[in-house]
Amino acid sequence: MTQTLSDGVTHQPVGPMVDARPARRPQDVRLEGRFGAVEKLAARHAVGLWDATQGHDQIWTYMSAYGPFDSWSSFSDWVATRTQLEDPFSYAVLDRNGAAIGVATLMEIRPAMRVIEMGHIVYAPNLQRTPLATEAQFLLARYVFEVLGYRRYEWKCNALNAPSRRAAERLGFTFEGILRQHMVAKGRNRDTAYYSMLDGEWPSRKRAFESWLAPANFDTDGRQRKRLSDFMGGGGR
Q1: pTM here?
Q2: Rounded mean pLDDT of 72-89?
Q3: Per CATH, the architecture of 24-232 is what?
């Protein structure tokens, strides 16, 4: 329970004092994991991403403003545009061979408020439901909290996007509610589901990720022995 404080002058309730120093903006870094790596999206990643995502239109359905792409030219132009943006700041997810098979993005960046969002996630089918898919999210969350210094990490998605909502809960984000008629996305109404993870929650989330990703949690065929939710304390997969 949050303690109710008084401002000492008007005696009205106020929140606790916090470290008001701004967080840092995302940088061009490479985050190494056991199953792959995450690095800033660059033009060189376009070919791998195109090969991995071409023909899988379903992965673009809930993107609010782009995709699917009907040609290499339009896709490569999109990647080139994304590489130039500071917000959203896009990262490529690389497999052990260095092939780009996904994109994850830090966005809605508010250093003064120490708030940042994970979004614009594009995972090719061969990345979905793999240890690397989870590890990439762990690497970025750790970077957000421990290196950049954010205190609130957000996850928002179309309220109809059931896989994204399950992923948020599985990854340790807390559901906060739905903003009705929040956006017009590709000409359609979008209600937006809000989730968050806080800096005070990160240590326990980190332990859960590390326990799940540990070699001992996978059998000789690479199958998980325990679910991430078992370590998080939830009931998901």
Answers
A1: 0.94
A2: 98
A3: 3-Layer(aba) Sandwich (3.40)
